[in-house]
Task: inverse folding
């Protein structure tokens, strides 16, 4: 997906051509109830989202903000209290959509008594993959996640990072079009985290859609094309990450390799609006600052959607 | 062993009524289930949305999930289940089983009159209980563990349908149990066969030539006794060629042979062979039974002598009261020499008489040909109680001629058996003594069936029970946690075992009342037959009885739906009592089990499908 075009088109979510929208939710609401049907938590309130083909979409929010609930609703692991979740235009409860989905849960919940090879073989058997290709794919994925040396060890002997990697391999076994990653980098060392992010970017480049959720802001900032910020079940912010982080009312100049005389000259040039401008842009905030301001705003005014800038041009 | 009349039915005879019951039960139960689901759903979401939700689930089940069902995915889950079971050390149960058998020999009573029965019932019971415990714990653990560890997230987000998950688990556990039972079966078989093995030598003191029949003849053979081995000894006879058998002790016999040209008076010349006849599968052929009362008129039943067990009914001695069995399908090819009868009468004495000698009875064989209803001379016998009595009716019988003055010889098959049918009449021949009889108490002994196959049938019976336990366990574990699922499965199994008792309690045939009444009786130490009373508080009695009735009605309805476990366990009983289990009955039970597996899997599918696995 080329960088700027998508945002420029749409200030408000409009029905895009069906094939372009991979995930859409309408008024998606989830209320957790206890055994007697009494309301416990409103985990998600009337979420409207669209994720388009070929983008990396980040769900961002503090713990308990409804990120994982959203992913579980999209996968059909939970049933919505009201509203709808559509994946590839099918209802989330429709199992056949899973043919094209890969999912890496928050922690890699795998069978500890299987080894890496058996794990991938088992998951591959759940898809309609011919035996020869299955074998080939299992081998390829094991080497892609760099677990060749541990392929015959039972998963109970694996370290956290190794488990995470085999979890990723498991999510990719069916060569999915949509990959949902729940906290993909938690528990990984910086190296592993970098590898995970590279994989995510590579998947995007292969034309796949990635939805990830995280509370680790640098990861989101590094890889996501668009993000949604959730706080206590409400959508607070939605848009392209580069535009969200741009401060529109400030301008910044940067230049380098200038002599004293040249600097004077540039001052003149600027004053006269002439010469060559090396760098001129709006300074960006960090995602961390944006995030914290949104969360504080949200806590001060619950229920209100955060900023004016949310769908910037 | 009590033999139930419904067990004689052939597959074809059973299938008609069974399919009728099935055709009625399935729509009724389906409707009740859907209605129940609607009520639950309506209570949570309101009637309209509730109806819509139930309709959607059913529509997806039939329209989407059923056509998409895949054997490949089901087998993948079954494979996983097998691996999981192996790696969770199911093998331990083999060790327990082997240990039990290693030391069981010390505790089994080798002096028993019927060691084969003892050994067989021991191995079959041990296997049943061990397998039940294993099936229960294996099957109820898997799905809740997957949900608890959230491994299930990675499964249900693949294109796995809920039905495949349930069925895959069932298949996997059934495979594990099958292998387990097969190995246990082989171990048990050798344990039993080896338990029967023993050797005897010939005791020199008892060895003697038989007395000649007529003076001057040569001795017709030799007789002797064996040494005491395995707590018993035999006496034996051989003919003049040196071949013979021992008598039957503890259910078995030995061949006795004398080596060629040896001195007959030399005990070393005789060889006592390996025991045989202990492990058999007797094939009884049962007839249709009816009674005549003391005036010779047909009657529904004999006399009740006041015994609580109403299995047998009684006929009075020295009257026309008779029990008549009609046998079918007899042919002289099957019984060239004699007609072997098995008899397990019970005797009710109104006076003690000579307690050592049994009560006398007579057997009359009568043709069923309406134009020529001839019958043979009564054949007398002396009843032996509490054991199987074997009578050989010879082919050549005598018949009184019409005038009663002379007798002529008739052939059993040529003259009496008419189109394969024969009536056998039993009367008691001692005045004011009674014979008690049920349909299974007189039978024709067909040639024995192979013991090995019968033993296998006993294990197949256990296998069918385990399949149902596994299905119930998996089904309950789709919506309950492991401990609750174990309780639920145990409750279902117990109800399956005691279904007929619950039925009797409900109809009032069994005494003591329902659970509340029974508890009150226990605390008050009341006899079960005294009427329930709380002083003058009449209403209390009604309330208790009403609550009990409601509870029993529910439980009875449940037990009507649950599989008949005691019926499936009958194969073990037949084997332990050395009776051949009916192939047709086994086929019926296989079919019934298959239907139950399907039904339970469908229920499991709906529970799994409507469950929020991440909740």
Result:
């Amino acid at each position: 997906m080329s960088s700027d075009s998508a945002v420029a088109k749409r200030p408000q979510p409009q029905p895009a051509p069906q094939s372009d929208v991979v995930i859409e939710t309408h008024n998606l609401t989830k209320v957790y109830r206890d055994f007697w049907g009494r309301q416990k938590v409103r985990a998600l309130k009337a979420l409207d989202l669209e994720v388009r083909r070929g983008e990396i979409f980040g769900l961002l929010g503090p713990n308990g903000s409804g990120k994982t609930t959203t992913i579980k609703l999209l996968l059909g692991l939970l049933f919505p209290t009201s509203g709808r979740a559509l994946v590839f235009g099918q209802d989330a409860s429709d199992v056949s959509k899973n043919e094209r989905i890969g999912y890496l849960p928050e922690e890699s919940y795998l069978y500890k008594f299987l080894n890496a090879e058996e794990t991938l073989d088992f998951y591959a058997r759940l898809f309609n993959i011919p035996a020869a290709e299955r074998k080939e794919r299992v081998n390829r994925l094991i080497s892609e996640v760099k677990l060749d040396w541990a392929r015959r060890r039972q998963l109970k002997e694996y370290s956290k990072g190794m488990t995470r990697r085999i979890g990723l391999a498991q999510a990719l076994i069916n060569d999915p079009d949509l990959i949902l990653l729940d906290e993909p980098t938690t528990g990984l060392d910086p190296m592993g985290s970098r590898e995970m992010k590279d994989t995510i970017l590579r998947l995007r480049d292969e034309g796949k859609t990635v939805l990830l959720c995280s509370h680790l802001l640098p990861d989101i900032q590094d890889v996501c094309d668009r993000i949604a910020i959730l706080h206590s079940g409400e959508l607070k912010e939605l848009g392209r990450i580069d535009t969200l982080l741009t401060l529109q009312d400030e301008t910044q100049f940067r230049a380098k390799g200038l002599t004293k005389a040249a600097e004077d000259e540039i001052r003149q040039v600027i004053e006269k609006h002439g010469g060559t401008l090396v760098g001129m842009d709006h300074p960006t905030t960090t995602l961390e600052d944006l995030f914290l301001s949104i969360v504080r705003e949200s806590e001060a005014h619950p229920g209100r959607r955060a900023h004016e800038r949310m769908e910037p041009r | 062993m009590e033999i139930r009349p419904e067990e004689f039915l052939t597959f074809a005879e059973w299938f008609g009524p069974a399919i009728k019951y099935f055709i009625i039960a399935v729509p009724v139960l389906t409707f009740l289930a859907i209605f129940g689901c609607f009520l639950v759903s309506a209570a949570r979401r309101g009637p309209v949305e509730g109806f819509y939700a139930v309709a959607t689930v059913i529509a997806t089940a039939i329209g989407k999930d059923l056509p998409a069902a895949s054997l490949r995915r089901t087998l993948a889950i079954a494979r996983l289940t097998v691996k999981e079971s192996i790696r969770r050390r199911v093998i331990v149960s083999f060790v327990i089983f082997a240990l039990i058998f290693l030391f069981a020999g010390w505790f089994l009573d080798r002096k028993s009159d019927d060691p084969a029965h003892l050994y067989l019932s021991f191995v079959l019971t041990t296997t049943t209980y061990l397998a039940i415990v294993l099936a229960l714990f294996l099957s109820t653990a898997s799905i809740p563990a997957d949900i608890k560890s959230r491994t299930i997230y990675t499964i249900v987000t693949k294109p796995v349908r809920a039905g495949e998950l349930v069925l895959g688990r069932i298949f996997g556990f059934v495979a594990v149990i099958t292998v387990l039972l097969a190995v246990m079966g082989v171990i048990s078989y050798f344990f039993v066969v080896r338990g029967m093995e023993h050797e005897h030598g010939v005791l020199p003191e008892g060895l003697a030539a038989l007395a000649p029949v007529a003076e001057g003849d040569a001795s017709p053979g030799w007789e002797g006794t064996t040494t005491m081995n395995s707590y018993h000894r035999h006496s034996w006879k051989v003919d003049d060629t040196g071949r013979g058998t021992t008598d039957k002790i503890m259910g078995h016999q030995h061949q006795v042979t004398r080596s060629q040209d040896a001195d007959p008076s030399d005990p070393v010349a005789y060889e006592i062979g390996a025991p045989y006849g202990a492990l058999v599968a007797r094939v009884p052929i049962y007839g249709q039974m009816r009674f005549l009362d003391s005036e010779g008129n047909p009657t529904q039943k004999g006399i009740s002598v006041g015994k609580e067990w109403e299995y047998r009914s009684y006929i009075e001695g020295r009257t026309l009261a008779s029990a008549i069995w009609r046998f079918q399908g007899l042919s002289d090819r099957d019984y060239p020499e004699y007609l072997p009868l098995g008899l397990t009468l019970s005797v009710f004495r109104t006076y003690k008489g000579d307690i050592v000698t049994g009560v006398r009875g007579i057997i009359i064989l009568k043709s069923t040909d309406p134009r020529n209803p001839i019958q043979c001379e009564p054949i007398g016998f002396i009843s032996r109680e509490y054991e199987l009595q074997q009578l050989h009716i010879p082919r050549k019988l005598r018949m009184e001629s019409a005038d009663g003055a002379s007798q002529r010889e008739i052939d059993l098959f040529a003259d009496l058996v008419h189109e394969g049918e024969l009536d056998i009449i039993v009367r008691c021949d001692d005045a004011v003594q009674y014979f008690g009889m049920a349909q299974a108490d007189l039978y024709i002994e067909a040639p024995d069936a192979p013991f090995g196959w019968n033993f296998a049938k006993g294990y197949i019976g256990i296998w069918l029970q385990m399949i149902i336990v596994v299905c119930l366990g998996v089904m309950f574990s789709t919506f309950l946690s492991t401990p609750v699922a174990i309780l639920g499965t145990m409750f279902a199994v117990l109800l399956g075992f005691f279904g007929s008792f619950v039925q009797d309690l409900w109809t009032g045939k069994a005494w003591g009342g329902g659970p509340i009444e029974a508890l009150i009786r226990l605390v008050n130490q009341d006899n079960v037959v005294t009427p329930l009373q709380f002083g003058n508080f009449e209403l209390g009695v009604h309330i208790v009885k009403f609550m009990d009735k409601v509870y029993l009605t529910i439980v009875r309805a449940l037990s009507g739906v649950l599989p008949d476990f005691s019926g499936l366990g009958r194969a073990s009983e037949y084997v332990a009592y050395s009776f051949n289990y009916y192939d047709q009955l086994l086929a019926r039970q296989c079919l019934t089990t298959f239907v139950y597996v399907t039904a339970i899997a469908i229920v499991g599918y709906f529970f799994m499908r409507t469950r929020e696995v991440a909740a």
User: Anything to note?
Assistant: Residues 5-113+167-246+287-310 of chain A form a domain with the Rossmann fold fold (CATH 3.40.50.300).
